[in-house]
Amino acid sequence: MTINQFFDSQDEIRIKIFKALADPIRLQIIRILNDKKEELSCGEMGQLLNMSKSAASYHFKTLREAGLTSTRKAGQNKFVQLNKESFQSFLPGFLESLTTER
């Protein structure tokens, strides 16, 4: 019996999601987007996280490739927002568990 016998068609997506959420910065990005309840420009997010554009871009790409966010381009600006359908499908209740109030 091989490990591939245990995988279903959605497991690759699950692996990408958990790898993306395993980083504290990306988890913070998800938390901020969830708290704001709207899309934010990549520049705004970079300022909130106090990081360079290239570092922020790397994290946005990882989240987008995992299906957790989507990016919209408008002119020179890019805007990022949560893909709530992915969270509902793969991690129901996860967004509700994220709060900045402790």
From TrEMBL:
CDD domains documented for this protein: HTH_ARSR
Domain HTH arsR-type, residue spans = 6-102
Protein name per its UniProtKB record: Transcriptional regulator, ArsR family
PANTHER family linked = LMO0101 PROTEIN, TRANSCRIPTIONAL REGULATOR, ARSR FAMILY
**DNA-binding keyword on record:** yes
Recorded GO terms, molecular function?
Answer: DNA binding; DNA-binding transcription factor activity
Say which species the protein is native to: Streptococcus macacae NCTC 11558
| NCBIfam families found in the cross-reference section | HTH_metalloreg
UniProt xrefs under SMART domains: HTH_ARSR (SM00418)
Q: Which domain of life is it from?
A: Bacteria
Write down the InterPro entries for this protein, in alphabetical order.
ArsR-like_HTH (IPR011991), HTH_ArsR_DNA-bd_dom (IPR001845), HTH_MetalResp_TranReg (IPR051081), WH-like_DNA-bd_sf (IPR036388), WH_DNA-bd_sf (IPR036390)
Question: What keywords appear on the UniProt entry?
Answer: DNA-binding, Transcription, Transcription regulation
Could you tell me which Gene3D superfamilies the record lists for this protein?
Winged helix-like DNA-binding domain superfamily/Winged helix DNA-binding domain
